[in-house]
Amino acid sequence: MRILIVDDSIDKISALTTLIHDNQPNASIETAGNISNAISLFQSEDTYNLAVIDIFLPLRKGQDVLKNGGELLLKELYRKLETLKTPNFIIGFTQFEDALESDFSPIWRIIKFDYNSDKWKTTFKQLLSHINNTHFNISVIKDIKPVVYVEGITDLNYLNLAIELFFPKYKNLIEIKSQKNAGANWVASQVAIWAISKIKYGDGGDYVMSIGLLDADEAGNKAKKDLFDRIKTENEQKCFKVLNINQKYNQELINFYSKGCKIEVEIESLFPINTIIHAEKQGWLEHRSSSFIENPKGWKQYEETSLSYIKSLGFNDDQNLYIKKVKKFNKQDFSTYVLTLDPKLREDIFANFKVLIKDILTECKVFKN
Questions:
Q1: How does pLDDT run across 149-178, given as a tens digit for each residue?
Q2: Mean pLDDT in residue range 72-92
Q3: What is the spatial distance between Cα 304 and Cα 321, in angstroms, rounded to a whole number?
Q4: Beta-sheet strands, E only, within 33-169
């Protein structure tokens, strides 16, 4: 059974996933956190047997939640019947009482989620049973590979190229997944679903691993905490690992950390300084809201800026570009630039990715020294 959960709450997604797999162990579950990403998933070749849609949804990642977001998604789905695959069954899902009065759909009902009640579970079990008893083609999970969930499509493209460059014989042994503007919360939600599903190689084999690859920044650290707060059982914990893109993958970043400057790190931070300088000249970089994950002990933050403090440690203007980040709307520009450089330079440009890919393959239990 293919199920799409359109929601961005890891607690609700985890509760739903637990219930689904208790009653439908072979279910394949995906998530989308906003209307735009859900629409893109409805364009896939395979139809979802069930779509569970939150009533309150943003149009896109980072935008405000719309109280009629679920209704707008349904209207768009039915407006584009020629290009979108309508799920066999649709259900609204909300934890808010007033949302039950929304004009979600004249056809599909809304289930009220409640942390302190099992009533919603009974209703949902009956729905799953009904779907199983219909004549729709219920797909099952086959040929599962370890999966790496990353925060965006550009991240996915970097990792796929790095595997091709440095570990080509392993490229078909794992799968890397993302969505447009997926973000750290989406990664955590997908890893939680995987952990709860507890997929094994055969009947008595090891658990198939999932890797959540997160930036070492505020959003990544929060998503990691939310995930570990949600996943508590020993068997679930054996099914996944979280890797942070941190300073160890780039000597330039190690230099900052060695002097007590724990700067935020994202995947673009792994590229060499000449690519970062080019990005600055193009206007693709911006200052972060906070330069440090933790404030340095020697920084007198009320007397000097973070930049002046870093300069006092001997870092030059080019090196200091690493305390900036690629703007959200220029990530594709940066990606296009590094991916279209002379192929002869690729191994040098992606050199810092080699250790990261090795760590991923090791945690996926497919790499052997």
A1: 999 999 999 999 999 999 999 999 999 999
A2: 91
A3: 18
A4: 50-54, 57-58, 65-66, 89-94, 110-112, 147-149
- Residue ranges of the alpha helices (H) in 133-204? 153-166, 183-197
Helix (H, G, I), strand (E, B) or coil at 157: helix
Question: For residues 339 and 15, what is the distance between their CA atoms, to the nearest angstrom?
Answer: 40
pTM for this predicted structure: 0.88
Q: Cα separation of 353 and 144, whole Å?
A: 25
Does 341 score more than 90 pLDDT? Answer: yes
**Residue 183 is encoded by which pair of tokens?**
């973000």
182 occurs within a structural domain: yes
pLDDT given at position 211: 96
Q: How many CB atoms lie within 10 A of CB 134?
A: 11
Contact call for residues 248 and 355 (beta carbons, < 8 A): yes
- Say if 346 falls within a structural domain: no
Total domains in the fold of the chain: 3
- Residue 182's Cα: distance from chain center in Å? 5
Q: Hey, how many other C-beta atoms are within 10 angstroms of the C-beta on 79?
A: 10
Q: Is residue 140 in some structural domain? A: no
Q: Give yes or no for a contact between 280 and 337, defined as CB atoms under 8 angstroms apart.
A: no
CA distance 102 to 104: 5
Q: Could you give the CA distance from residue 136 to residue 92 in angstroms, rounded to a whole number? A: 21
Measured between alpha carbons, how far is 180 from 329 in angstroms, rounded to an integer? 12
Final residue of a structural domain among 105, 132, 159: 132
Q: Is residue 230 part of a domain?
A: yes
Q: Do residues 298 and 181 share a domain?
A: no
23 exposure class (CB count in 10 Å sphere: 0-12, 13-18, 19+): middle
C-beta of residue 161 within 8 angstroms of C-beta of residue 341: no
Distances (CA, A) of 131 to 2, 127, 211, 366: 11, 6, 31, 36
Does residue 368 have a pLDDT over 60? yes
The pair of structure tokens assigned to 12 is: 């609700």
Give the chain's mean pLDDT. Answer: 90
Residues 125 and 14 placed together within one structural domain of the fold: yes
